[in-house]
Amino acid sequence: MSEPILELKDVDVHYGVIQALKKVSLHIDEGETVSLIGSNGAGKSTLLMSIFGQPRASAGQILFRGTDITHKSSHYVASNGVAQAPEGRRVFPDMSVEENLLMGTIPIGTAHADEDMQRMFELFPRLKERRNQRAMTMSGGEQQMLAIARALMSRPKLLLLDEPSLGLAPIVVKQIFQTLRELAATGMTIFLVEQNANHALRLSDRAYVMVTGEIRLSGTGEELLGNQEVRNAYLGGH
After folding, report:
1. Cα Dmax for the chain
2. Coil vs helix vs strand at 43
3. Which contacts (CB < 8 Å, 24+ apart) does range 214-222 have?
4. In this structure, are residues 229 and 37 in contact, taking their beta carbons and an 8 Å threshold?
5. What is the pLDDT of residues 179-199, one digit of tens each?
């Protein structure tokens, strides 16, 4: 069996004296969509950011395609095939859609920029309509599409998504997850941190549940959707 594309082994993360992650172990295989669910403040975003070394793991190992990246720079991680659409979108507000997309090519250069931009416009037709518009003038949903497209411009082997549904209207959330489903169907490997457990688990091959910095449960998306503990905690009992 081939090694996972991403593996965390007993990872601890501290913010000063406060321990945010406690012996977290998980893996993602190539071509999988894996989600990490949990309540606000559980440590989900910290885990995602620790892959880029911000914050740095204080113990344990993070492996990407078999290489130990625990102490590598963020630039090293990005230029070797990991991209992130961060929580809160963080698009460049004064730049146009096209300029934001070009920023996504920084880890790999602009050799494929035109071709990849056309692909993003096919994936997100709304961005094509807004291509010359400044990001700050767009809706939250459009900015989220832009954040995902910008991440994809670096041709990642692994796409990290941090709370893509946060603050968006239900109809927009549905559109975003439909696009993620299309991306997954192309073989893209996706690691999704998400509070909307219902959408996340329906999209995912496998999932992990995080509670106060620890992995408490794992299983297929379907198994966790049917788990009474998960349903009570994250799905309103339904």
Report:
1. 50
2. coil
3. 214/21, 214/22, 214/23, 214/24, 215/24, 215/25, 215/26, 218/26, 221/35
4. no
5. 999 999 999 999 999 988 999
